[in-house]
Structure formats: structure tokens, C-alpha cells
């Protein structure tokens, strides 16, 4: 009876080992990219930027980019619609918006200077220099600078 159990054990090990070895040495499959995270996803999804686009995939973050790929039809559609042009247009729009915000900020700063009768070259250093030496801000700044020097 003991031999029979030993024989069954040896047969099961011999039967299970080759498929397990085969699946353990199979190369990992590349994940196919999705343009967006599915709204009903139950697992963790991450994205990497590939070809200037967000490549969403199921799994842990920082998967090597070599393991991710776009489907051939999506790549062809992106070329057809000029996704590189879209991303370049998006960059240009962001830069234009930032430029407009900066111009508004400069205009507001100039308006503040004119309203308070300050010269055009008035800076933060000028504002700090105008604080009296016995004020709280001046004493606090001096205390801070003394602490840094020690």
C-alpha cells in the first residue's frame, strides 16, 4: 500500500510539473492600451504616457512601457485624425491661456501700484524696507535670521 501511495505521488508530480514549468517560463504578454479608464472597473487601473497619449491598463502603476501597446486599429485611427497635432494644439492652447493669465496679473499689479501711488519699479524688497524696525514683522524677521545664523 505504501508503494502505491508513493507511485501516485510520483505520477502526480510528473504530471503537474511540466505544465507548471511551461507556464512559469512563458514570456509575459503585453497589455493593450485603452484611451480611458472604464467607469465600471473593479480592479486598480493605472496609466502611462505612450506616444503622447494616456495609455490606461489594468494593474499596478509603473508597468514598463515595453509591456504596453496600442491596438493597430487605434494607432491607425490616431494617425488618421492627427493625434500628434491634437496634443500640439492642446499645448499651444495651454500656453496661450497661461500667457493671458499672466497678462491679467501684470495688469492687476500695475493697477494696484497706480491706485496706491507706487512707482512702476516698486518691488517686494521695497515693501519690506518700508516696514518700521520696531514693527512685529521686522522683529520676527530679525529673530528668524538670527536663528538661521546659529
What is the structural class?
mainly alpha
What is the string of helix and strand elements?
A: HEEEEHHHH
DSSP, total strands: 4
Helical stretch tally = 5
Largest sheet: 2 strands, parallel
Strand order of the largest sheet: 1-4
Query: What is the arithmetic mean of pLDDT?
Result: 77
Shape: elongated
Give the N-terminus to C-terminus distance in angstroms.
85 Å
- The residue ranges in which pLDDT falls below 50 over 5 or more consecutive positions are none
How much helix is in the residues?
Answer: 55-70%
What percentage of the residues does DSSP assign to strands (E)? 5-15%
Compute the gyration radius: what is it? 33 Å
Task: Please supply descriptive tags for the structure shown above.
150 residues; two-stranded antiparallel ribbon; 5 helices
Structural description of this entry:
The chain has helices at 2-25, 72-81, 83-115, 124-129, 136-149, and strands at residues 31-32, 45-50, 53-58, 68-69. With 150 residues, the chain is mainly α. The radius of gyration is 33 Å and the shape is elongated. The protein contains five helices and four strands, in the order H-E-E-E-E-H-H-H-H. Helix 2 (72-81) packs across helix 3 (83-115). Strands 1-4 form a two-stranded parallel ribbon. Strands 2-3 form a two-stranded antiparallel sheet. The chain starts with a helix and ends with a helix.
Amino acid at each position: 500500500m505504501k508503494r502505491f501511495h508513493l507511485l501516485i505521488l510520483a505520477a502526480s508530480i510528473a504530471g503537474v510539473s511540466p505544465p507548471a514549468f511551461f507556464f512559469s517560463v512563458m514570456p509575459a504578454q503585453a497589455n493593450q492600451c485603452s484611451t480611458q479608464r472604464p467607469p465600471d472597473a473593479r480592479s486598480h487601473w493605472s496609466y502611462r504616457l505612450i506616444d503622447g497619449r494616456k495609455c490606461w491598463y489594468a494593474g499596478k502603476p509603473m508597468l514598463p512601457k515595453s509591456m504596453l501597446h496600442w491596438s493597430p486599429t487605434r494607432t491607425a485611427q490616431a494617425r488618421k485624425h492627427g493625434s500628434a497635432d491634437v496634443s500640439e494644439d492642446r499645448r499651444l492652447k495651454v500656453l496661450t491661456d497661461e500667457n493671458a493669465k499672466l497678462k491679467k496679473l501684470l495688469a492687476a499689479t500695475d493697477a494696484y501700484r497706480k491706485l496706491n501711488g507706487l512707482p512702476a519699479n516698486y518691488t517686494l524688497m521695497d515693501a519690506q524696507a518700508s516696514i518700521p524696525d520696531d514693527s512685529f514683522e521686522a522683529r520676527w524677521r530679525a529673530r528668524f535670521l538670527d536663528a538661521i545664523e546659529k
